[in-house]
Design goal:
Bound molecules: 2'-deoxycytidine-5'-monophosphate
Strand order of the largest sheet: 2-3-1-4-5
Strand content: 5-15%
Low-confidence stretches: none
Number of strands: 5
Largest sheet: 5 strands, parallel
Helix content: 40-55%
Length: about 210
């Protein structure tokens, strides 16, 4: 069984995907990490993330880069969003994601285009969302916890800019598949959101 989990940044989709994978005993792939690795590799190569050739060359990143803590930074998220605009990059990362999705026994993948492009055949598709203000608050709390000082307003601006880029790009934009279950986590705590999603998936399967 393939479970596709899409949604904007800081919507809770990653946490929910990990919880679903544990609940159903499935392997999980955070596809955003692949784009973050490409973005980071462009920076290592001293290339330009907005240049399609530089971004494509960075798709040859070493697997060890996926474990780099720096990939979790806001800077890497911004670079990932920029390189992800290029169709060449999306194509270069397609086979790896599709192979993960179609492995025997099934898988959970989270990203922006899992239900629309990578696994449009997934029987379970979720689109996890939350207001930009709430997503900024969550990201701010997480960063404050890691002792990173950054004004809340700056985070909200970054989140809105990233949403606009992810939603507005021509190739595989962020959007809910027509058959996705849309779950808004704005007013839900982490455990409530996980419970609501597991219940929705269990109901859809029965
Ligand atoms: O989920 P994330 O914040 O780690 O993703 C970082 C960026 O990568 C996101 O802004 C857009 C891009 N991305 C994408 O285009 N398609 C995906 N399936 C996953 C991420």
């Amino acid at each position: 069984m393939i479970i596709a989990v899409d949604g904007p940044t800081a919507s809770g989709k990653g946490t929910i995907a990990i919880a679903l994978a544990a609940h159903f005993g499935l392997p999980h792939l955070d596809t955003g990490l692949l784009y973050r690795a490409v973005g980071r590799q462009v920076a290592i190569n001293q290339g330009n993330p907005d240049d399609p050739a530089d971004a494509l060359a960075a798709c040859e990143f070493p697997d060890a880069l996926l474990a780099d803590e720096q990939l979790r930074s806001e800077e890497s998220g911004g670079l990932a969003s920029r390189v992800s605009i290029h169709p060449q990059v999306r194509e270069a990362l397609f086979a790896r994601q599709r192979a993960f999705a179609t492995q025997e026994g099934g898988a959970v993948l989270d990203g922006r285009d899992i239900g629309t492009v990578i696994a449009p055949d997934a029987p379970i598709k979720l689109y996890i969302t939350a207001s930009a203000t709430e997503r900024a608050r969550r990201r701010w709390l997480e960063m404050t916890g890691r002792e990173i000082e950054i004004p809340l307003a700056e985070i909200e601006q970054d989140i809105i800019a990233r949403d606009n880029r992810d939603i507005g790009r021509k190739d595989a934009p962020l959007k809910a598949a027509p058959d996705a279950m849309v779950i808004d986590t704005t007013t839900l705590g982490k455990e409530e959101a996980i419970a609501a999603v597991i219940q929705a998936v269990e109901e859809a399967l029965s």
